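Sample 3 of the quickstart, ligand nicotinamide-adenine-dinucleotide:
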Amino acid sequence: MQKITVLMIGTGGYAAVYLRELLHSPRAEQFQVTGAVDPYAAMSEYGRELSDLGVPIYDTVEEFYQAQAAELAIIATPIYLHAYQAQYCMEHGGHVLCEKPICATLEDAKAMMATRDKTGLKLAIGFQWSFSEAILKLKQDILSGLYGNIRQIRTIVYFPRNLDYYHRGTGWAGKRRLDTGEWLLDSVASNATAHYLHNMLFLTGDKIDRSAEPKTMEAEVYRANSIEMFDTCALRIRTVKEVELLFYATHAVPMEQGRMPEFVLEGENGTVTLGYENGQEIMAGCLKDGRNISYGKPDADELRKLYCMGEAIRENTPLPCVPETALPHLKCICALAESFPETPEFPAE
Ligand SMILES: NC(=O)c1ccc[n+]([C@@H]2O[C@H](COP(=O)([O-])OP(=O)(O)OC[C@H]3O[C@@H](n4cnc5c(N)ncnc54)[C@H](O)[C@@H]3O)[C@@H](O)[C@H]2O)c1
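Result:
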């Protein structure tokens, strides 16, 4: 079988998760990284490995496509670059797997979708839980009515992050926009814990590849760190179908108070919980008729998204997380940015 040629955009940070798999995992044999774009590639372990392997590395997507082409572009760059790079790759014939969040503005998201529609290429957004077999099985059960109408989902997640986190990479973390004007809206809800906010919208969407539309949102956001955006939030979202979604997330906790994501989903006919036993994720449903369902681990295979993308390219199989799926999350992020032009500091008390 011919390999799927891959352009990797970004080589450090989260891109390392892709490159480790693409360069070292036997199951990634169907892919071949034929080029990379990253002006700072020399600073990352896998950037240097690509260079040692003789894989050409360019500073820009323009330079890459002047010299080469690739069937698939994987974008794992700072948020403000997603829209431009995704559109450029599609315009030059590449399917795109773009990291979450889709981008920073609704206009950019629309432009990405328009380019996808114009080119007929595939565009997936890398929220890995939406590619997880466990989450997809749960969503099937919700869609088939097993839990009846869903009334509420509540999620809590504390990911301790210190100032190194905000100073990583090119220094874009925690920013509202760059000095050059590009929007970022980078916060606890749009980046590290975005998965779990998106997941509640995803689970209550009325098709596999759609998420619920937020109708109203009440929110408190705070910052303990000296950042522009917020490191802590408490959100109450009501969806168009009247499901209440509660989201509590923070980076501003000491290491020992970290909490992996937990959620409780309450439906008319039963409850689903995600919790942990001896550090192992347990996601289980409990129906009012006495049945219990074990769903497996949402984090079992973080890179299933890569293989779903490969299959979508080869077999035209549907993708569970496309721009439309990721858009409701972005709507919440944009609404928060509009509602809080300045982030309140945690009150001293
Ligand atoms: N799915 C996940 O679990 C997950 C986890 C972490 C980050 N992410 C996402 O991955 C993306 C990158 O985040 P990160 O934390 O790795 O950021 P980062 O700043 O640590 O790394 C970004 C990479 O992009 C490169 N880069 C910077 N400017 C570039 C340019 N103009 N062209 C090409 N490459 C450029 C950097 O050199 C670096 O290699 C974000 O969208 C983030 O939300 C996803």
